Amino acid sequence: MTMTVSSTMPREASPDASRGAGGPDPVRRRATRFWTMRRRDAAAGYLFIAPQLAGVVLFVLIPVGLAIVYSLNKWNIFTGQLSFVGGANYAALAADPQLPSVLGATAVFSLGVVVLNIALGLGLAVMLNRRFRGVTFFRTLFFSPVVISVVAWTLVWGFLLQDNGGINALLAQIGIHGPNWLQEGPTAMGAVIVTQVIRSVGVNMVLFLSALQGVPGELYEAARIDGAGSRTIFTRITLPLISPTLLLTGIITIVGALQAFAQIAVLTEGGPALSTTVLVYYVFQQAFTFNNIGYGSTLALMLLTFVMLLTVLQWQLRRRWVFYEN
């Protein structure tokens, strides 16, 4: 009698059988399910902003964090020793007899730069927004100081503003004895403001010029048909439509004025007395001239606070006087 013995040994499953009848690989299916279109777009976005984020971390967040640490300590740069002093540096702000003069000079300088820069930039943009022969040359001429090195620009103006410099030589030709521009308080501040405005007004001019060219010409034609004059057209049509650019230039100009350093350092070194010692230059003096790193860091944090408060204030005021076309 012949007996048929069936094999009980399990057979090894083939790879195709483990995947199912024609089904995809489970590992590949899980990877596909994880790597969705949204996640791919998010990853691409993070890669694009990674250089900017690295710059913010390296040049903003880390320096601000170090400034906070230094403001709570007294740092002896010769021995490298940090001594914790708590709020002593912040208390020194209220007892600093020079700080009111520094803040006053900062306010005068910033106000002068902002008002003149925005007004002159808008005026130049309005004039150069017309078609006439040589308009490209004048646009390039007024913008060219922006691309010049700040130090080189300031050094040239330093020679021109000396007692026997080029400006006084020109005034002497018409019988006017010019002052010593950089050695007298009021004229020193005025000279620094004018030097800063002439160099940086080209940026605002270009921004305003771009905004003016975006205003629809049909609005001007309709206003003229209704009998509106040039002043009415400018105040009722032009200014409201370019108000977002006014907000942008206001923020940029104020921040730039509060950070102006090279002009002060090269032209006047904060003098005469404290008439041109703005806050950012006072920070430099305390930290690197008097080696008071802790107090200089405290002043730098105060400057940062001023910049942030003014920026937030302007951003909040945009709801009242900035017109956004729907």
Folded structure, characterized:
This protein is mainly alpha-helical. The chain contains 15 helices and 2 strands. The protein has helices at about 15-20, 25-35, 35-70, 90-95, 100-125, 135-145, 150-160, 165-175, 185-215, 215-225, 230-240, 245-260, 260-265, 280-290, 295-320, and strands at about 75, 80-85. A two-stranded antiparallel ribbon has the order 1-2. Helix 5 (about 100-125) packs antiparallel against helix 12 (about 245-260) and helix 14 (about 280-290) packs antiparallel against helix 15. The chain is flat, with a radius of gyration of 32 Å. The protein starts with 14 loop residues before the first helix and ends in a 5-residue tail after the last helix. About 20% of the residues are buried. Residues about 1-20 have low confidence and may be disordered.
Weakly predicted, low-confidence segments: 1-18
Radius of gyration: 32 Å
Strand content: under 5%
Number of strands: 2
The gross shape turns out to be flat
Mean pLDDT: 87
Structural category: mainly alpha
Number of helices: 15
Helix content: 55-70%
Strand order, main sheet: write it out. 1-2
The major sheet is characterized as: 2 strands, antiparallel
End-to-end separation: 98 Å
- Helix and strand string, N-terminal first? HHHEEHHHHHHHHHHHH
